[in-house]
Amino acid sequence: MYARILIVGNNRFGEADYLYRLRCAFERNGHAVAHFKTWASKPITADLISTAIKSFRPTLVLWDVETASLDNGILVLLRKSSVTVCALLRSQNGVARVSRGDSFDFMLVPQGVCPDRAHVSLTVPTAFDRAYGLAECSSLDKNRCGLLVLQPFDERKSRLVCAMGGELIDGGVLSFDASWARWYRNPELSNGAYLSRRAKYAVYFDEQDLSLSDVLLRIAEGCVILVEASPRTKDCLAEIEGEIMWFRDSFEACALVRRLEGDSLHYDMIRNMQWERCLILPSFEESFEVIFQEMDSQLSCSGSKKRVLSQRERAKRFVLFGWFGARNFGDDLLLEIAALKITRRYSESVVQVIGANSEIIEHDYGFEALTPERKHEIFEMLRGANSLSFYGGLLFDDPMADTAGIVEMFSDAWIEPTGQAGVCLMAWMLGVPIKFMGIGAGPLEKEAPRLAVRTMGLAGARFLPRDEMTCQCLRAAGVPEGSISKKVDLAFLLGKELDFFPKGGASASFGLVKNKYFMVSLRTWNLNPPDYCERIAQALDQVMERTGYVAAFVPFDQEDIEIHRDIVRLMKNRDAVVVLWERPKRDNLLGLIVDSRFAFAMRLHCSILHHVLGKPAIGLDYNDKICAHFEAMGQNEALLALDASVDDMVAVVGSVDSHYDELSDAICKKISSKADVAQEAFDELFSSVERQMSCTKDCAGSLTFYPRFRSLSAEKLSDAIIDIEKMKGQRDEATCERDAARAAMEECEQSYSYRVGLMLLALPRKLRQAFSKRSEEL
Fold it and tell me: Is 504 exposed, middle or buried, given 0-12, 13-18 or 19+ CB atoms closer than 10 A?
């Protein structure tokens, strides 16, 4: 049996952190795992937890007390959700953070700690991460770094560290805690697992945050452990006390380092002794399986229906790539559809996302997410994944405008075709099947995106495009015919998922009457003619006057609001229209479509969703995908060119309205078959998962850590951008101060006291002038 584990906490030391290593062990054992990280600017909220519970469906929430703050309201929410909640306390510091009133099921506490009896406590297993210990370091240089310090800075520790550092033959001091400004290295940029592996010593001081689990990871990295002796530290490390090098003051610390530095054989002996002691400990995987079984046993004995190990199959991980989290309704709808189909087929699945805004994806949809430039983390996400699938219309020329073109694939590309090609190559390296699901493409006329698309084909990607025009673009780019199979837009699946739509609609809440309005969904486009807004405004005015319907402007993307505003300003009947000034939430937007008479749209998914419900749509043909869709639906007569005249627009709308029932019947006949074809795309995805089951592999002996998560040039660019933003902020601040000074000066000049002062100053000046004139005359 397997668990679904939601980890809440922060990776303080990157891949060298206990939580990260724990996650890897859980995944090796086949458990489903999601990890939501937190820091000062991104706290864990009740909304995020609630969304994660609905989408991820955890059986266990593992809360790292030391790195994440969950208020009691969130803990109560978790308890009401029938989720087992376990507080992880790795040190005395963690114990001090737990309140007696906190609401959770279990506490995992360190050896020797006497927890609050109000909570059921289990002991944090003393376990060794063998896979991490057997991993390698990419550097062949035998000169190791010096001293690793992980606890926060203070003056006493600084004096001890400086004293020990003075005895080092090679290397200096290294810390992953930002309070050590002089020696700090950010483990999220410069790989913490690499740097700590290069350290000769890890030093720990007498403080509450000392954790046996962290010390064991440093031994796995090959560090010799030096610890300040005290009753507290000896109790904490009692299980490996005989293998630790203890010191009581700076004199002993210096002598200890001096001896180890002067005698390499003695250093190797101590290092091997610590390593061999750890090898006889149980593994991460074994020890936590025992913990989970004990949790279920205690839950059963207490009469609770909750179970940690309740999933029968090993977890299957699906990585989804798309323009998700950018507040574009069409793309976000595809994310929801894909997640729905995957989780319905595999209840043991884990959905992970690569999209435009990871925070929005996590908050709104509850999926663990990355942005496309975080290539190292994406590689780790793909390691052991069962599939990589792409959604939406991502393959076209326009995104190449701000990149380095062809070479972008080999540098720090984002979501453009070259960036997608880079992710495909990663998946190919790891043996992960690649599918482009119901995607659109074109135009593809520039060399760089065409080469990128061809590279995706060479990496084994299977393209399931939504229309024939996309097929032609892919063939022209050099994708083999055998890698292409035409399907349809995945939104057509909703034709057989009508429960996805709200039953009552949403028109009344926006001041609209069902079937007495039509939906307008336009977008800013670089090929819109100069007089585009004027013609649209005139056409909509005439439609409203002739039909009596209200025009409802509904943005499918936040950027649509600007063009809607420009058109409404030009309309005579502007006071009669309804304008939404922000993109509505999913249910509200779908509810508006349910109650709408027809659509007047540039946005493809506005037309598709009206068609799914058997409603006509008038499409504005700004891109090949619009033409392809209306052709496939047999609705060519409802398609308008961007430069169509006002009379033509009004005539097409009038024809659609007068032949409404006839058009609706024709649309409904098409929808059922389209939904079947859309389902075929997912059937092919699932069959590839069954054929090439890519379960998480044990990385022991094969994992290699490299110095950086990102290239040096990318880091320098990031630093330069940060400096530019700081300078802009300083400039803006100076401008504000200047404007405030000018305003104060102008206010002063207009004041009564200032004018009186000027008059008083003028009198002596006049007298001086008069006396001087008089003296000249004399």
Answer: exposed
**Buried b / exposed e along 342-370 (16+ C-beta atoms within 10 A):** bbeebebbbbbbbbbbbebbbbbbbbbbb
Question: Phi and psi for 684 in degrees, rounded to 5?
Answer: -70, -40
* C-alpha distances in Å from residue 17, one per residue of 13, 134, 449: 5, 16, 39
State how far the Cα of 225 lies from the Cα of 159, in Å rounded to an integer: 19
pLDDT digits (tens, 9 = 90+) for 120-139: 678 777 889 998 988 888 77
SS (HEC) of 416-460: CHHHHHHHHHHHHHCCCCEEEECCCECCCCCHHHHHHHHHHHHCC
Torsion of CA 769, 771, 772, 777, to 10 degrees: 130
Q: Which residue has the tokens 């059922």?
A: 672
| DSSP at 696 | P
- To the nearest whole percent, how much of the chain has pLDDT over 90? 55
Give the burial class of 236: count Cβ atoms within 10 A of its Cβ; 0-12 exposed, 13-18 middle, 19 or more buried. buried
Nearest partner of 267 among 256, 277, 254, 276, judged by Cα: 256
Residue 2 DSSP class: B
Under a CB-based contact definition with an 8 Å cutoff, are residues 433 and 425 in contact?
no
**pLDDT tens digits, residue range 23-46?**
999 999 999 999 988 765 577 888
Q: Confirm if 680 and 110 have CB atoms less than 8 A apart.
A: no
Identity of the residue numbered 740: A
Contact by Cβ (8 Å): 319, 383: no
Q: Are 601 and 519 in contact (CB under 8 A)?
A: yes
Cβ neighbours for 715, distance < 8 A, ≥ 6 positions apart: 189, 708
Q: Compute, in degrees rounded to 10, the torsion defined by CA atoms 226, 230, 235, 237.
A: 0
- Give CA–CA dist 518/315, Å, rounded: 45
Nearest to 274 by CA among 242, 237, 227: 242
Give Cα separations from 346 to 1, 68, 343, 352, 614 (angstroms): 15, 31, 5, 14, 31
| Strand 136-137, strand 145-149: pairing | unpaired
Q: For residue 443, say if its preceding peptide bond is cis, omega within 30 degrees of 0.
A: yes
Residue 727: other Cβ atoms inside 10 A: 10
Helix (H, G, I), strand (E, B) or coil at 137: strand
Contact indicator for 471, 465 with CB cutoff of 8 Å: yes
Chain centroid to Cα 306, Å, comes to: 30
Residues 6+ apart with CB under 8 A from 613: 501, 593, 594
Tens-place pLDDT, residues 629-668: 999 999 999 999 999 999 999 999 999 999 999 999 999 9
The pair of three-digit structure tokens given for residue 285, joined into one six-digit string: 């995987």
Angle at 387 between CA 33 and CA 53, to 5 degrees: 30
Predicted pLDDT at 218:
93
Beta strands in 470-587 (DSSP E): 517-521, 550-553, 578-579
pLDDT given for residue 95 in this prediction: 67
Give the pLDDT of residue 189.
67
Mean pLDDT of 706-727: 71
The answer to whether 150 and 202 have CB atoms below 8 angstroms apart is yes
Contacts of 48 (CB under 8 A, 6+ apart): 36, 362, 363, 366
How many angstroms separate the CA atoms of 747 and 507, rounded? 51
Residue type, 471: C
Please report, in angstroms and rounded to a whole number, the separation of the first and last CA atoms in the chain. 118
Write down the H helix ranges in 560-602.
560-570, 586-595
Pair of tokens at residue 588 = 């509200």
Q: Which two tokens stand for residue 209?
A: 């945050």
Amino acid at 507: S
Q: Which residue has the tokens 């058997």?
A: 614
Query: Among 33-42, 343-352, 365-374, 768-777, which stretch is predicted with the lowest mean pLDDT?
Result: 768-777
Distances 769 to 503, 546, 762, 772 between C-alpha atoms, Å: 90, 82, 11, 5
763 pLDDT tier (thresholds 50, 70, 90): confident
